[in-house]
Amino acid sequence: MGRSVSGGCHLRASWLSGKTRPLEYRVAQLEALGRFLDDKKEEILEATELDMGKVRGAGIWGSLNELNVTLNNLCHWMKDEHVDKNLLDSAFIRKDPYGVVLIIAPWNYPIHLFLVPLIGAIAAGNCAIIKPSEISKNTERLVAETLSCYLDNDCFAVVTGGVQETTRLLENKFDYIFFSGSPPVGQIVMTAAAKHLTPVTLELGGKNPCYVSDTCDVTNVARRVAWGRFFNAGQTCIAPDYLLCSVEMQEKLMPALRAAITEFFGPNPQESPDFGRIVNDKHFRRIRALLCSGRVALGGQTDEAERYIAPTVLADVLPSDPAMQEEIFGPVLPIVVIANMDEAIDFINARPRPLVVYAFSCDSKVVNQVLERTSSGGFCGNDTLMHLMLSSLPFGGIGNSGLGKYHGKFTFDTFSHQRGCLHRNMGLETLNTPRYPPYTQQKLGLLTTTFEVKRRGTCTLL
Ligand code: NAD
């Protein structure tokens, strides 16, 4: 195990002590997280900038919003849910914490992506071990060195390290594992979890298709797509990964995309304070190698010393080109030409299910058709990334893009076991007589009448 703020073995003892269960404890820890965000605001931004280059606009407000939504609603979410019953007793769903949970985070939004699940884990009454990404090393160091000053060290620990350390960490039995990262590592995590029958949430990645129909406001599409693709230099799991459109739309989009890129990042995006850098040399080289796909219509400049790749649009990309073989996770937007919406839908459905499908059209029937005839973790019509901003929407993948969901109340639910509970009356034993042998026709009739569920709308008289 790598550097650990406070070990980790004692977490199970803390969990068993029941310390994390009371509402007051949960609120106190969540408020401490709020203080962490507030006190360390500048250091967080500095560390993220060192790791990721300039990412103005990302900030910490997303995590703060999740925190506030949780604090505002926690006492309501925690309440037992009373359910329909056909017995004279109390039947309810208890929102039980799982126990000791593990949160493994990626590097692309290194604070937000461990903090949001941690908020839910604490809110639901769990102990937690957090494993930030070793790739965003400045943020990892900051979290490892400072989070313990805010959270209860009996119940929360940060474990640092790379593949080797995480492999060893995963040998332990956890009560829940929440993983964000790539699909191949998701498989490794799920395999390790299966050994202990540990439930998992897998927030994974992949290629998000974006269909642009022939009837749309080209300027608006270009601005919304360019923002979603080039935010954080394209290192966003829900970024539109490639466009599907007709050859005519490709022609119309090119000047509009050029205008949007210049409007956002100026004539030389390398000098823009709002355009990020690629996280490390390995990813820089991987993304640069994708630029041979189709033809470079916009951008294409690179600077290895700075790990800079210009906002780039590739035209006439073929499904067999390198850019279409893997998740791009960089500031490169390939356009694949298709004949019409049906072909776009077939293209999407012939590939692994994405984290999100995007569709642009002035005709809502077209947007609805794409929604209706494809399958993905989420869907956003006529914009990009914005579905993520609503904590009232579940966020998560399906198939290759993941398993489970979070954000807002969904995070609380993810980290809570819905415990079905029946609390019966100790007396009234005569009411139980029909269920005990020896059975008679009369007893069986009574039992059926008591427990039978009738199909609604069926009339037995006619
Ligand atoms: P990654 O899968 O390489 O790493 C994620 C975490 O897993 C890191 O903490 C890392 O230390 C650990 N890890 C890496 N290899 C491991 C191994 N062999 N065994 C055990 N643990 C291992 O992902 P990444 O490169 O950090 O992030 C990029 C990927 O994450 C992209 O695919 C992106 O789409 C996805 N992502 C998804 C979401 C989401 O919410 N769905 C959010 C952000 C990123």
TrEMBL record:
CDD domains listed in its UniProt record: ALDH_F3AB
Molecular function as annotated in GO: 3-chloroallyl aldehyde dehydrogenase activity; aldehyde dehydrogenase (NAD+) activity
Active-site residues annotated for this sequence: E203, C237
Pfam families according to UniProt: Aldedh (PF00171)
InterPro entries: Ald_DH/histidinol_DH, Ald_DH_C, Ald_DH_CS_CYS, Ald_DH_CS_GLU, Ald_DH_N, Aldehyde_DH_dom, Aldehyde_DH_NAD(P)
GO cellular component, one term: cytoplasm
TM ranges: none
Biological process annotations from GO: aldehyde metabolic process
Domain (Aldehyde dehydrogenase): residue spans on this chain: 20-417
Record-linked SUPFAM superfamilies: ALDH-like (SSF53720)
Origin superkingdom: Eukaryota
Keyword terms of this UniProt record: NAD, Oxidoreductase
Homology family: Belongs to the aldehyde dehydrogenase family.
Name of the protein described by the UniProt record: Aldehyde dehydrogenase
Species per Swiss-Prot/TrEMBL record: Malurus cyaneus samueli
